Every structure is written in structure tokens, then in C-alpha cells.
């Protein structure tokens, strides 16, 4: 039995492939390398460069690897701001891509999929923390594209018996503790990598987007989770489906919130650097606070996140950034 990882060269995908290999699981990776990095994946892994929306390409992958019995799907665009200006890019790549993927999975009788969903499917929550059955009213095309993907999987389960687990991530941050793989986006838009780039002198200062939110210090509060812990949740979800369980949805977060100012302060402590920062206007589409209720993943999947301290998360990211100031361009 082998696991097909779509988007395995991306940030979270590459950490999951790494964990799967550490557990001696059989893995096949597909990535179109539009945002992923070939160097993020162990060179011994069976790797196909191509697009999951290309059905003939995907037929070739399944034909050549008849032992694939489960798919983990990370291959999607994920920038909120970009999705606001180019929504069709998101509905095409993310949503339409899911339709094509499920068609080919069904053709090859592959009936298990673990899917990267997002807290962005909840929109502006009415209460905290957020539970899996809370209303989903996304406020940007990115969140909408992922909610549509969840719904498509529900109907595909009803009609074809393709079982799914949708994992709704909150804010992902950190790197492999040995610093060998990490976060490398171009352009970088996420808080922690930007904070650490300022700490390294690669940027002049951090802009904190808004300090007049309805939170204790006025800056947004987010729930940070480490990619290693996410990786474990994906592997547990594959096992859960292989055991014959029904489709389900789980939040993945630490259940603790940190404000943008608290993240900055923690990064100053971990790095020992000053990290100049200024308050800038709000960014469009940022809810005040996002904190996950993640008891369900702990209870049902047996998920035990190890990175329960945001400083530990920042330490791992700092190791990656200081050893790879230019991201994967610095790797052999
Ligand atoms: N943020 C910020 N300055 C930046 C980048 C992000 O103040 O240069 C804030 C952003 O407004 C949000 C939080 O950091 O409140 C997390 O944003 P990020 O883009 O990392 O993740 P998202 O929540 O959008 O997935």
C-alpha cells in the first residue's frame, strides 16, 4: 500500500513526506513545482512533476503505481490577497482541480483522500474557539474554493464511496527542527517568515497590519501549529480511513491564540534581535481572532501535537531561515 502525496514539494507537503519516510511508509509524490521546491523532497522518493488537473498525467501516475490506496492532497493555491484579485485562478486550480482528481481516483478505484482545508472556510466566526460544525461563510475566494472542495468530496463520497478526511488548518509556522526543510514562498506574505527576515536584516522592518482590532492588544490573534504536527495528523487520517472509518472533518490548531505583537515579542526573545516594526493599515479580509477547538482531532484521530509552545515553533523556523537565507536556493 502506498500513499500518493499531491503537492509534496510544498511547505506542509514536504514536511509530511519527510514524516512518512521516517515511518518507512511507501510514498509517491506529485508536484507541478509552481510553488513547490524539488529540493524540499528527498531525492530517493518516486517523484512526478506534473499537474493533478492533467487527467492523462494522473492516469499515468496511478497506472505505474497500482499499490496507491490513499491520496493526501496539498496541491492548492493559498494566498488570500491574491484570491481577491484573481478568484478564477483559485476556482480553476483548487476547485476544478479537485473534480478532475476525484474522477481519476474513481476510475482507478482509489477511495481514500486526506485533504488540506483551512480555517478560512469559517469566514468571520461568531464565537471562539471555532468548532468543526460552526457555520462556514468564507469571506474570500481562497476560503470559498476550499469549502467548495469539501462539498465536492461529500457528494463524491455519497455517489462513489470515496471517503475523505478534511483537515482545517489554522496558522502554520515552523520548520523541521534540524533546519533542513522549511518555509520558502515567493513572494513571502506570512507573518513569521517576514518577522525572521527582518531579524536577519533581509527586510528593514515589519508592518503590523492594524492595531485597532477587537482583541486585548488590538492586533489580530491567531492559532499557530507546526508542520510536523500537521504531518502527523495527515498520517493518522490516512490510517483512520484505512481502518474503514467514515468521512469526517477536523480542525488542526494548538487551541491557543497569539497576537501579532506577541509573536513579534516572542521572535525578539528567540532571535535576540531588535526587529523594527511599525503599525500599518489593516489588511483586507483579516478576522479579529481565529482559534481552533481541536479536541476532536485529539480524541478521534489520536493526534498529539508536540509543538505546544510558540517559542519552540519560532526556534525551528529561525534555524531554517538562518541556515537558508535564500530558501531552497541555498540547498545543495
Ligand atoms: N501580518 C502582519 N504583517 C505581515 C504579515 C502578516 O501584520 O507582514 C498579520 C496578518 O494581518 C494576520 C497575521 O499576521 O493578522 C497572520 O497572517 P499570515 O499572512 O501569516 O497568515 P493568514 O492568517 O493570512 O493565513
From TrEMBL:
Which positions carry the signal peptide feature in this UniProt record? none
Alphabetized UniProt keyword annotations: Carbohydrate metabolism, Galactose metabolism, Isomerase, NAD
Report the GO molecular function annotations: UDP-glucose 4-epimerase activity
Which top EC class is named for this enzyme in its record? Answer: isomerase
Q: Which GO terms describe its biological process?
A: galactose catabolic process via UDP-galactose, Leloir pathway
User: What reaction is this protein's catalytic activity?
Assistant: UDP-alpha-D-glucose = UDP-alpha-D-galactose
Record domain NAD-dependent epimerase/dehydratase: where: 3-253
Q: Which Gene3D superfamilies match?
A: NAD(P)-binding Rossmann-like Domain, UDP-galactose 4-epimerase, domain 1
Q: What is its EC number?
A: 5.1.3.2
Extract the InterPro entries matched here.
Epimerase_deHydtase, NAD(P)-bd_dom_sf, UDP_G4E
What cofactors does this protein use?
NAD(+)
Q: In which pathway does it act?
A: Carbohydrate metabolism; galactose metabolism
Q: Oligomeric state and partners? A: Homodimer.
- Family, as annotated: Belongs to the NAD(P)-dependent epimerase/dehydratase family.
Among NCBIfam families, the record links this protein to: galE
The protein depicted here goes by the name UDP-glucose 4-epimerase
- What organism does the record attribute this protein to? Ligilactobacillus hayakitensis DSM 18933 = JCM 14209
Classification from the root reads: Bacteria, Bacillati, Bacillota, Bacilli, Lactobacillales
